[in-house]
Model the fold of this input.
Amino acid sequence: MTLSDFPAMVDTLWLDIHLATLADQTPYGIIEKGAMAVENGRIVWLGSIETLPADALTKARSVNRLDNAWVTPGLIDCHTHLVHAGNRAREFEMRLNGATYEEIARGGGGIISTVTAVRNALEADLYEQSAGRLKAMLAEGVTAVEIKSGYGLDTENELKMLRVARQLGREFPITVMATFLGAHALPPEYTGRPDAYIDLVVDEMIPAVAAKGLATAVDAFCERIAFTPAQTERVFTAARQHGLRVKLHAEQLSDSNGASLAARFGALSADHLEHLSATGAAAMAAAGTVAVLLPGAFYFLKETCKPPVDLLRGQGIPMALSTDCNPGTSPTTSPLLMMNMACVNFGLTPAEALAGFTVNAARALDMQDQWGILEVGKQADFAVWDIEEPAELAYRMGGNPCRMTVKGGEIVSRLSSTAPG
Ligand code: NIG
Ligand code: FE
Done:
């Protein structure tokens, strides 16, 4: 960047900041003592304060001084079931009294208990309950979120969930990417007839979702308690026919060869992956499929088989992280807590954890052109943190050091620090 690159006029000049740009392979892409300029919602200049032209202040309509706060790209939560009704605290209690997640699911609880709650919820109630969760994420630096359907499991209620997701994106200063997850579980009215349910997903739901433009991707749960690879393949084929990208809940509870299947369809991501095999990883690497790791679900289900992080690293597969925000396996809205868990339980470095919620999360949603790193030309979506070094984001267990969340150059959330000194 040369001095002449500074524009004639900018909306806002951000000063007295350190930047973790995530724009290169050095951990964090750090620019200490940096500055950043924003015009029309985009980053138009960033660099070290020493390279800032002397007259930059006179070219800024406003100046924000942040007394040495750290700035990162806005966090991107790339795998959530944030739209849902009710909670499953009772099942949490049952598990602690000895039942397993799979037993509860086979007994008609699990995902199906949330399906009942979603079917019974008015659209406005579903919106209100979900908005509370999104608000918490916004306050923790989140500027983009993926939201899945999958608790309606009939056309009407799947569309209802996706409309709520779209409404959240309109009401909140957060980019919402919606994913259709009709093949999440078998609804009770189709007991014993899974292929007939897949017919409904393929022949009615996916065409309706695509026609209404309510989702950009299609996900499925390929697992012994959900759908087989053959059924998943039918869902992916229909998605492709309707111009929708695919993702997959793969190898969460067992190795079902889901990652290879997803890779064959050019999946954006394969998610969970605790039981991923070397063959599955190789297929993902060849297809450019992102690995989305979900440490909240791992923790909450007391899973002991860890995702093969060394294998992913060795294959050069980008690792994203996400909250998996859902009532059954990951009742959380906190990216920072997930970063801590990914470091402690999966062995990610704090820099990998931050990349997992920024640059690699953007790839998992195919939004890396405009989001995920701080760079000239990218959207001015960023989070400002009251921390002394970037590793502190993954270090704390709880607390929220997010001073402000900025979307398109505008401050959209402010919070005084609650982190201990
Ligand atoms: O990501 N694995 C399947 N889906 C969710 C769990 C949903 C639920 O239990 O309600 C997950 O873990
Ligand atoms: Fe999930």
